[in-house]
Automatic annotation (TrEMBL):
The lineage of its organism: Bacteria, Pseudomonadati, Pseudomonadota, Gammaproteobacteria, Chromatiales. It is an enzyme of class 2 (transferase). It catalyses: O-succinyl-L-homoserine + hydrogen sulfide = L-homocysteine + succinate. Catalyzes the formation of L-homocysteine from O-succinyl-L-homoserine (OSHS) and hydrogen sulfide. Its cofactor is pyridoxal 5'-phosphate. One of its GO terms (molecular function) is transferase activity, transferring alkyl or aryl (other than methyl) groups. The modification N6-(pyridoxal phosphate)lysine is found at K232. Pathway: Amino-acid biosynthesis; L-methionine biosynthesis via de novo pathway; L-homocysteine from O-succinyl-L-homoserine: step 1/1. Residues 1-20 are annotated as: Disordered. GO terms for biological process: 'de novo' L-methionine biosynthetic process; homocysteine biosynthetic process; transsulfuration. GO terms for cellular component: cytoplasm. This is O-succinylhomoserine sulfhydrylase.
């Protein structure tokens, strides 16, 4: 297979599985849940019902001439799984449909998705304007690694559109955000940010990991590209690491796909299969996570050891007005400050018996973290303070257990504070 590692097989457009092909068992006008269950699987001659895992690194040609034609891009078809794989394509088509994009490419992780977007769409001398409240590794990627290749990033407040506009200069090519933010659940107005981006000839890239398309569709609001860490809610049960980029055929299907097939951080077929199964229950899960999170947030408000609760679904959340028009429900993440700072926060975490002390989120199992000493531990204390991440802050990614059991698990620790 050495030749596949050096030959360019043409853009993703040469892939055989285009919308409209027989692999689409549900039309694009079908409802969200139907598409989440039905789109993307082309039944093989074995007539399997569940999507098969194509655990193969390469694909066979019937003749030397066919091999040559596929490599030349004259005949569509699979060549090598770093380029295309049917199980991965099924996941890509399903997620593209759910996000309302023309094209999706799957990646080895959420960070690989963000890296591939930057490598595919930016060049030396370009600038990014990014929300300050993005995933820690995203900040590191922008500040430490992209900076080495001459791409600079300026960080602004997610919820202040004027700050975004003021930060844009004539070298700025990309605006980047996550909404709601982690861990403080601050929200950005995506329609506003898209309008600002396009007025300045920039792309708006949105990390839609926390809401998923079941709750929020950034492309409908004007964003150009959506990135995902499929590791979180798309999987939904904490099994696999993966990611995805969704957008138009030119930028995603050619530029981003080109980076992936050349540089190699593609998704494994097995992981794609797990994510396909995850998408089938995505909407049900997101609504159930949200319902439990709202009940937990309301309950936390009544606890005397709790100083403040951060949840978009609460009426006093500063951007509560965006719940509904922009994001269907409050989502599954609730954060809160306890009185007594770090020691109290650690004592509360250590008092839990059911909730998992782990960094992942978007799992059916509820997880708890202390951002100041874990996900945001590498920030300087003054940077943390500027971001509003106090020593008493706790983040709960609410799972799908009975909410009474989650409340009881936290109640014993809160009583001891
Ligand atoms: C986890 C996460 C990422 C990174 O995804 P990986 O799959 O861990 O690489 C990016 N953005 C957000 C918002 C995340 O929560």
């Amino acid at each position: 297979m050495t030749s596949t590692t050096t030959t360019d097989p043409g853009p993703l457009d040469s892939d055989p599985f285009q919308p409209g092909s027989e692999r689409f068992l549900a039309g694009p006008d079908a409802g969200f849940a139907t598409r989440a269950i039905r789109i993307g699987h082309q039944r093989t001659p074995e007539n399997e019902h569940s999507e098969p895992v194509f655990a193969t690194s390469s694909f066979v040609f019937s003749s030397a001439a066919e091999a040559a034609a596929r490599f030349a891009g004259d005949v569509p078809g699979n060549i090598y799984s770093r380029f295309t794989n049917p199980t991965v394509r099924a996941f890509e088509e399903r997620l593209a449909s759910l996000e309302g994009g023309d094209c999706c490419v799957a990646t080895a992780s959420g960070m690989a998705a963000i890296l591939a977007v930057c490598m595919g769409l930016l060049k030396q001398g370009d600038r990014i304007v990014s929300s300050r409240s993005v995933f820690g590794s995203t900040t590191m990627l922008f500040n430490k690694y992209l900076a080495r290749f001459g791409i600079e990033t300026c960080f602004v407040s997610l919820s202040d559109p004027d700050a975004w506009e003021a930060a844009i200069d004539d070298r700025t090519r990309m605006l980047f955000c996550e909404t709601p933010s982690n861990p403080l659940t601050e929200m950005g107005d995506l329609a506003r940010l898209a309008e600002i981006a396009h007025r300045h000839d920039c792309l708006l890239v949105v990390d839609n990991c926390f809401c998923t398309p079941a709750l929020q569709r950034p492309l409908d609001l004007g964003a150009d590209i959506v990135v995902h860490s499929a590791t979180k809610y798309l999987d939904g049960q904490g099994r696999c690491v993966g990611g995805a980029v969704v957008g138009d055929r030119k930028r995603v299907g050619e530029e981003v796909f080109g980076v992936l097939r050349t540089a190699g951080p593609t998704m494994s077929p097995f992981n794609a299969w797990v994510f396909l199964k995850g998408l089938e229950t995505l909407e049900l899960r997101m609504l159930a996570h949200s319902e439990r999170a709202l009940r937990l947030a309301e309950w936390l408000l009544e606890q005397s050891a709790v100083e403040r609760v951060y949840y978009p679904g609460l009426a006093d959340h500063p951007q509560h007005g965006l719940v509904g028009p922009q994001q269907r429900t409050g989502g599954g993440i609730v954060s809160f400050d306890v009185r007594g700072g770090k020691q109290a926060a650690w004592d509360l975490i250590d008092a839990t018996r059911l909730i998992s002390i782990t960094a992942n989120l978007g799992d059916v199992k509820t997880t708890i973290t202390h951002p100041a000493t874990t996900t945001h531990g590498r920030l300087k204390p003054e940077e943390r303070a500027a971001s509003g991440i106090g020593d008493g802050l706790i983040r709960v990614a609410v799972g799908l257990e009975n909410i009474e059991d989650i409340q009881a698990d936290l109640a014993s620790g809160l009583a001891g504070l």
